[in-house]
């Protein structure tokens, strides 16, 4: 409990007010939220989220993950997720440290400390939970406390980051990180297809094209893509389109028809139907609600 309080206080010192805060530590972002939030779409890059206080819900397709100080969330590939803070208050705000995973460093450490991978791991979901342990919490706290002494960041942050990643790859759930570091797995093939799809989501790409990018047959690609992302390639593309359309309407003031066309929809009615199915409201009403929160 003392270690958790130290971790919580370290985040609170450097996250002033609600929001997302970049830090001087490589790959480290802090998040604070003093009240529960509506489900919001976000792209989870390969990352680990450590919660110091509060609770969050992440939905990937039909799979739902709740994480809090007893667990951490790992995203192994870039995924469109619906996230919501479900436990937070002014007295006890949601506090989180997010660590973007460095593929080169992760690869180096997994080569130095190899472990066998069960065959079934190759089809594991791109979003998963791990159990927080005392060594892992202490390593995360040591890294974060370097923000209190900025002059120590350059010489000590690389060491603290290596320790934290070592704790992750050697933990009970370390196979997830070893799998991420390999390039000869089905998950790596799907990750290549995801990167291509994220760059070309506006286009009406055929499944055969994505399967070719992944180096798989159509049927094999569809099965493995759904195992990793919990959705079909077309549903995945639809979520990417809807997230960008929402950003265009709320952030840039585009009307629904223009935003829908911008992300690849020729039919405004189809765009409106699919948008309402994902977000619960027609595009214009949803954008107005987000521009004028209660």
Automatic annotation (TrEMBL):
- InterPro entries for this protein: Homeodomain-like_sf, HTH_AraC, Tscrpt_reg_HTH_AraC_N
The keyword rRNA-binding is assigned to this record: no
Q: Which UniProt keywords apply?
A: Transcription, Transcription regulation
A Pfam family that this protein carries is: AraC_N
Q: Which SUPFAM superfamilies match?
A: Homeodomain-like
Domain (HTH araC/xylS-type): give its ranges. 191-289
Q: Which domain of life is it from?
A: Bacteria
| Gene3D superfamilies in the cross-refs | Homeodomain-like
SMART domains in UniProt: HTH_ARAC (SM00342)
Record-given protein name:
AraC family transcriptional regulator
Q: What is the lineage of its organism?
A: Bacteria, Pseudomonadati, Pseudomonadota, Gammaproteobacteria, Lysobacterales
